[in-house]
Amino acid sequence: MKVVARRDVTGELRTCSKQEGPAAAANYAGQLQTIARPVAAMTATYPNESTSTRHAHRRDQFILQITGVTAMMTERGHFVVPPGHGLWIPAGVVHQSRAWGEVEAQTIYVTPDRRRGTSETCRLIRASSLVEALMDEAVRMPQTYDQDGRDGKLLELLLAEISHMPEVTLHVQVPPDPRLAAICKAVLGDPSSDLTLDDWADKYSLSRRTLTRLFRRETGQSFSVWRQRVRLLEALARLGAGEPVTCVALDVGYDSPSAFAAMFKRELGAAPRHYLRWTDQEVVLR
């Protein structure tokens, strides 16, 4: 653990504890669940491809991605969290994370009674500059911050701003039906697989019509659209880890980088090289 002392605008000395690696982060997160304040915060770093154990928290959790990309699997969906995005995970939701690239993330744990309009389901947002600034303040606060003073007011504003942010759809649902869940988990494990809907229907002794109907009923979309979203999320995670666009496009099942780029821009509104922040290493002074 690295401890960095900083002074805020009032001159007060604040301590920022940075947990290094999944084990240290998990241990510290456990301690924060019983802090005698409604909000507890931490910063943590994770090596490339490191994973957490499957776990849940007694408090609501909000994770703000600073660098790298985090893939988050929950019981009901798979999320990808790029830099500048935040994921809200309600208390009790089982989840497991995987780091793509060298990841740094800031996290707050919130007692459910302070939810105040934030979601009772997992929710991914693109963070505003205000959320980013307030999270930076939160991780520097003492654990026993003054709830009635400046720190308490900043945290109230942070929770209000998080609840105000629009949702981003960088996730896929995993349906509760065990047959569909098995298919979805297999595709998530190998997004490049070219098995067709007929192949999956034969494997689980279902007719194509039944599988199509079940899949649309439980996910709200067709299997092909769902699989395209899985490939997009896999690509986004790997691009965030710095892998070349061409390699990513071919590895997730596209015949050419141009076809992949067209899909990516159609879905996210920007070319693969431009969607993630800090993809250009050069800093331009304007």
What fold name stands as the CATH topology of the largest domain? Jelly Rolls
How many DSSP-defined strands? 9
- Helix count from the secondary structure assignment: 10
Radius of gyration from the alpha-carbon trace, in angstroms: 20 Å
Tell me the helix content.
Answer: 25-40%
Can you write the helix and strand succession as a string? EEHEEEEEEHHEHHHHHHH
Sheet of most strands: 9 strands, mixed
Low-confidence stretches: 3-13, 277-286
Query: What fraction of the residues are assigned to beta strands by DSSP?
Result: 15-25%
> How is the quaternary structure best described?
single chain
SSE class? alpha+beta
CATH class of the largest domain: Mainly Beta
The CATH architecture name of the largest domain reads: Sandwich
Pfam families: AraC_binding (PF02311), HTH_18 (PF12833)
Organism: Bradyrhizobium yuanmingense
Protein name: AraC-like DNA-binding protein/mannose-6-phosphate isomerase-like protein (Cupin superfamily)
Domain HTH araC/xylS-type: 181-278
Task: Itemize the secondary structure elements and their pairings.
Blueprint: E1 2-7, E2 13-20, H1 22-32, E3 39-46, E4 60-74, E5 77-81, E6 85-89, E7 95-110, E8 123-126, H2 129-138, H3 150-164, E9 171-173, H4 178-189, H5 197-203, H6 208-219, H7 223-240, H8 245-251, H9 257-268, H10 272-275
Helix pairs in contact: 2-3, 5-6, 8-9
